[in-house]
């Protein structure tokens, strides 16, 4: 009887050991498969970059690829940590129609960095807060244009406080402008530093001024070009293709992987200029992915790859009195205002003539 009990206990212990061993084996197997998959993906990435750069050397590509700290991220990891554009389903814009200046002088080349209107490249980190960086970038440029002082503004303020957005889970640039309008201002980067995570709001800023919005439900590349030339750095939402993470800053980025669909919009950046290089038109774009080895901060994107479909122009006034009425021949908004444009663009060329018949809008 004692022998039987001993054997029974031994059998139970053996079964538990086998279960534990199986669990450990399963874990080792999963880790092995992941490593093999990662190794295979990495080798594929290296081969793809080499092939692309060879084609660039042969003149078949307008830009080169390179490795960086994001090269080993999966598409899902790229989406959650590097992007962050999210349009609320129930969002209703408060914007009215934005009209370009009637006699605007549009230079062939523009780079607002040369005017001191663009802060150094920032890093959104492992947080889908590109929308906040695009919003602050445009406001920083407008503040510099109005006051002559370039001040870095707080993305964390927007991440923590903007209602309707999801912080590091993604957001919409226009909602950030709405928050700034309702809050009557935004904190500086020094007073409210970036943490790359969702936190509780720690302060409120009151500027004594106010912001109102005007915008356009639709536009094109020419309208966006006029806005960049006459307004300043512009917040834009784009369809970021997977190969955008491999851009090495050399050449003019262009991709055949982006879809011609506004539903593909997934990232917000700052258009700081435009120009032509070797016969190719491009947008000069400030990103929020500060890289250690390969920089993607100020990128050149081929102009034909993006089209403005829905611009919004929030106007910030630095005075307490209401805006003046529009006069014949004037721009839609009077002097003394701070301009911001949030344009939503996707990867399809739709050339349209610049608006010829301007509607007279009075507020």
UniProtKB/TrEMBL annotation:
Record's keyword annotation contains Disulfide bond: yes
Keyword tRNA-binding (UniProt): no
Example GO biological process: proteolysis
GO molecular function: cysteine-type peptidase activity
Annotated keywords: Disulfide bond, Hydrolase, Protease, Signal, Thiol protease
Pfam families: Peptidase_C1 (PF00112)
Similarity-based family: Belongs to the peptidase C1 family.
Name used for this protein in its record: Cathepsin K
């Amino acid at each position: 009887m004692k022998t039987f009990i001993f054997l029974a206990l031994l059998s139970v212990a053996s079964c538990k050991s086998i279960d534990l061993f199986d669990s450990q084996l399963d874990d080792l197997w999963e880790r092995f498969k992941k490593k093999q998959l990662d190794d295979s993906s990495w080798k594929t990435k290296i081969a793809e970059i080499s092939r692309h750069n060879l084609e660039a050397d042969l003149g078949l590509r307008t830009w080169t690829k390179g490795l960086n700290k994001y090269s080993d991220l999966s598409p899902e990891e790229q989406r959650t940590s590097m992007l962050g554009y999210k349009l609320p389903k129930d969002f209703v814009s408060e914007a009215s129609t934005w009209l370009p200046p009637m006699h605007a002088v549009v230079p062939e080349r523009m780079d607002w960095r040369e005017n001191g209107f663009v802060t150094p490249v920032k890093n959104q980190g492992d947080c889908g807060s590109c929308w906040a960086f695009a919003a602050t970038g445009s406001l920083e440029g407008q503040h510099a244009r109005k006051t002559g002082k370039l001040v870095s503004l707080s993305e964390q303020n927007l991440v923590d406080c903007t209602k309707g957005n999801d912080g590091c889970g993604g957001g919409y640039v226009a909602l950030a402008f709405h928050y700034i309008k309702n809050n009557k201002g935004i904190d500086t980067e020094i007073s409210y530093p970036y943490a790359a995570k969702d936190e509780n709001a720690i302060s409120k800023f009151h500027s004594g001024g106010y912001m109102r919005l005007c915008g356009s439900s639709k536009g094109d590349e020419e309208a966006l070009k006029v806005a960049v030339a006459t307004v300043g750095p512009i917040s834009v939402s784009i369809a970021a293709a997977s190969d955008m993470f491999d851009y090495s800053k050399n050449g003019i980025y262009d991709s055949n992987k982006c879809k011609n669909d506004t539903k593909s919009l997934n990232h917000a950046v700052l258009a700081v200029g435009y120009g032509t290089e070797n016969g190719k038109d491009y947008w000069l774009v400030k990103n929020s992915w500060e890289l250690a080895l390969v920089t993607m901060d100020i990128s050149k994107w081929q102009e034909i790859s993006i089209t403005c479909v829905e611009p919004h122009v929030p106007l910030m006034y630095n005075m307490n009195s209401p805006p003046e009425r529009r006069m014949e021949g004037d721009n839609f908004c009077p002097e003394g205002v701070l301009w911001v444009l949030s344009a939503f663009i996707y990867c399809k060329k739709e050339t349209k003539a610049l608006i010829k018949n301007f509607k007279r809008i009075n507020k």
